[in-house]
Amino acid sequence: MASTAVTSTNGCFETASQILGVERGDLIALGQPLGFGISFMRIEHYVEKFKDEKNRIMTITAAECVAVGFLSLLWVLNDYHWELPNFEYMVSTWFPLESIKEEN
User: Fold this and answer.
1) Assuming Cys at both sites, which of 22, 37, 53, 102 could form a disulfide with 26, CB separation 3.0 to 4.6 Å?
2) What's the CA gap between 55 and 80, in Å, rounded?
3) What does the longest C-alpha to C-alpha distance in the chain come to?
4) pTM passes above 0.70
């Protein structure tokens, strides 16, 4: 029963892919603006709900940022086979490591 559902879902995806010219990555990329819009609407809802409580909105927004950061880290780890990649090249362009070493 479950395999039939998976097969029919894959068949629908393949049909949509052929008709619309979209791939799996396109659908994943579409999730980003949809997720952003939904989160924005939720924050607006809580702004009205908790407008009289101090720092409640900042707490909700901070929690959302932490969740996005954590999920992004999981995505990177998944892409690099659960090993943290070397980000030194990115850090050295923002903060030149040579100047920091020379000061010490």
Assistant:
1) 22
2) 38
3) 67
4) no
Distances (CA, A) of 44 to 39, 51, 55, 59, 85: 9, 10, 14, 14, 36
Amino acid at 67: A
Contact 77, 66 (CB under 8 A): no
Helices (H), the chain: 2-20, 24-49, 56-79, 88-94, 97-103
Rounded to the nearest angstrom, the gap between the alpha carbon of residue 49 and the centroid of all alpha carbons in its chain is 26
Which residue has tokens 């690099």?
A: 80
Task: State the Rg of the chain over Cα.
Answer: 21
C-alpha–C-alpha distance, residues 72 and 79, integer Å? 11
**Token duo for residue 59:** 């707490």
Instruction: Determine the Cα angle at 83 with ends 23 and 61, to 5°.
Output: 70
